[in-house]
C-alpha cells in the first residue's frame, strides 16, 4: 500500500456517509475504489461503535464494481465455490491460497502487459503468451478441483488434509507450480531481450 506509516482513517456514519479524516471531506465508494487503485492505505471504522468495517466496505466496492457491468472479474462458478467454503473445515486455507495466488499474479502482471503490448505491435509472437495462459488456466482449474467439495470423483485430486496429501503439501505443490510458471515467464523475457 502507500508509503505512509499510518493508514488514512475513514469513518462511516449511521446515514451511510463516509468521512475521510485526512482530507476532512465526505467521500463515496468510488473515491475509496480510486484510493485502492492509487495504492493508498485506509481503514474504515463505524463512527458510532469504533468497529473496523474495512472488509465489509471493500466487499461492498467489489459488489458495486461487479454490478456496473462491462468487466466482471468474479465468475459465477468461482463465487459459488467461494460461498461453499464458508463454515467448511478447509475455509481457513482459502484466504491464504487466494492471497498467494494474487501475489503471484501481480508479480507476473508487468510481464503479461509487456507481452500483450509486443504481441499487438507484432514484435512478439502469441504462442508463448498462449502457452502461459493455458498453464495459468490449468493451474487455476487444478486449484479449484483441489478445494472442490466433490472429492472422490474420477480424476479428482486427493483433498488437502487427507492421508497422503496434507493441506500444507497441497499448498506447497501449488506454490511449486506457480514458481515454475514464474521461471518460464522469466525465461521468455530473457529470450525477448
Highlighted features:
single chain; 193 residues; alpha+beta; 2 domains; four-stranded mixed beta sheet; 6 helices; 56% helix
Please tell me about this protein's structure.
There is one protein chain. The protein has 193 residues and is of the alpha+beta class. The chain has a four-stranded mixed sheet with strand order 3-2-1-4. A hairpin with a 5-residue loop joins β1 and β2. It is built from six helices and four strands; from the N terminus they run βββαβααααα.
State the secondary-structure class.
Answer: alpha+beta
| Mean pLDDT over all positions | 77
Domain module tally: 2
| Percent range for β-strand residues | 5-15%
- End-to-end distance, in Å? 31 Å
Overall shape: it is globular
Helix count equals: 6
Total number of beta strands? 4
Radius of gyration over all CA atoms, rounded: 20 Å
Largest sheet: 4 strands, mixed
Strand order of the largest sheet: 3-2-1-4
Catalogue the unreliable spans.
159-163
- Report the helical percentage: 55-70%
Give helix and strand order, one letter per element, not per position: EEEHEHHHHH
SSE order and pairing:
Elements: E1 8-12, E2 18-20, E3 25-27, H1 29-37, E4 42-46, H2 54-67, H3 76-84, H4 93-120, H5 126-147, H6 167-192
Parallel strand pairs: 1-4
Antiparallel strand pairs: 1-2, 2-3
